[in-house]
Each structure stands twice: as C-alpha cells, then as structure tokens.
Amino acid sequence: MRNSQAKYNVWTNEGSNELLKLMVDAAMRGCRDKNGVFNKKTVDKKILPTLNKKLGCEKTITQYQSRLKWFKQQYNNYCKFIRHNSGFGWDSVTKKFTTKDESHPKHEHYRTDTFEDYEDLRIAVRTGTATGKYSIVLGDDTDTRTFEIEENKETNLLDDYVFDYNNGEFVQSDKQESS
After folding, report:
1. Are residues 123 and 150 in the same domain?
2. Helices (DSSP H) in 29-113: which residue ranges?
3. 92 in a structural domain
4. Nearest to 101, CA basis, from 115, 86, 112
5. Most-buried pick from 35, 71, 92, 179 (CB within 10 A)?
6. What is the pLDDT of residues 64-120, one digit of tens each?
7. Is 42 in the same domain as 117?
8. pTM, 2 dp
9. Phi/psi of residue 164, nearest 5 degrees
C-alpha cells in the first residue's frame, strides 16, 4: 500500500494554478469538443505533458479529472454565492466580490479577500458546469417559441437575407439588422 501512495502526486497550489492556466490557454485556443469540455485526447496530448514537464511530476488523467471536479466545485460555490446573495457582484480589476460593507457579515471574507482564480475558472470550466442560468421552476410562465427566438438572435435563415442586385450577393435585410 505504501508503494501506491508514493505514486500519487498531491495537488499543490502551484500545480493547481498551472493546470488552470493550461486549461484557460487550451480553451482560448478552441481545444474543447462540441460539448464544451476537454476530451481525453486533448488532456493526454496537450495539457498533461506540459503540466508534467513544468512541474516535474507524472499527473494522470484520473488525477486531472479529480482536480477538474474540484475546480467545478469552486466555481459553483462562487456562482451560488452571487446568485443567492442579493447585492453581490464581481470587480474584475480588484479580483474581489463587491457588496455593501454592512451586508452579509458572515461572508466578510468574500468582500475582503481576492479571488485570482474566479475569471480563469469561469473560462476553464463554465461550459461544462451547470449554473442554472436557463432553469425554469414549476409555475414560471414561459413561451418556448419566444424563448427560442430570443436565444437565437443570429440566425442563418434565407428569410433574413435579401439579394442585393448592385453587389450580386445576399445581404442581411434591414429587418434583421434593426433587431
């Protein structure tokens, strides 16, 4: 049992921060699959080799998945905090959550501490994390047709274009541009 424990690489702050930077870089380069997550091949070929070389360790896909789960939990905690506490916001310059000083005395550390990783977490795990943005509660009034139209404002329907005889090509109609 001691040998198996010796092989396990504990996640340090440096290791977590470096992994997060690599994930943000990969996300910005468009390395996600259609579901918005990094597939195993991307992690094995692009993220882990760079991480292991930089840190001088041998992190595995299982260890990556464990840290990814932890990243998602951290991001969800931030999102829940903002969503369920009226008056909280985010200041990207100071890297702090914002609110009135007298409100939420139990959560003072959210006002005083900096959270350098919040924006990186949002980039790295947001698309693979449920945030409740589009959730509907029983009793909510909704018109799915209107909801669908509002969600897809940029469409590629032929009806949204008119033929411009001067240019000899289709261009967006005035109706589409004004909306």
Report:
1. no
2. 40-42, 48-55, 61-84, 108-112
3. yes
4. 112
5. 71
6. 999 999 999 988 888 877 777 677 778 888 888 777 666 666 767 777 788 888 889
7. yes
8. 0.63
9. -95, 105
Inter-residue contact 160 to 172 (CB < 8 Å): yes
Residue of 58, 30, 29, 56 whose CA lies nearest to 44:
58
Residue ranges making up the domain that contains 52? 2-128
* Sequence-ordered list of residues with C-beta below 8 angstroms from that of 153, at least 6 positions apart, any chain: 179
Amino acid identity, position 61 = I
The CA distance from 23 to 17, in Å, is: 10
- 56 with 117, same domain: the answer is yes
DSSP structure class, residue 172? E
User: Which helix (H) or strand (E) element contains residue 171?
Assistant: strand 169-172
- 47 and 108 both lie in a single domain: yes
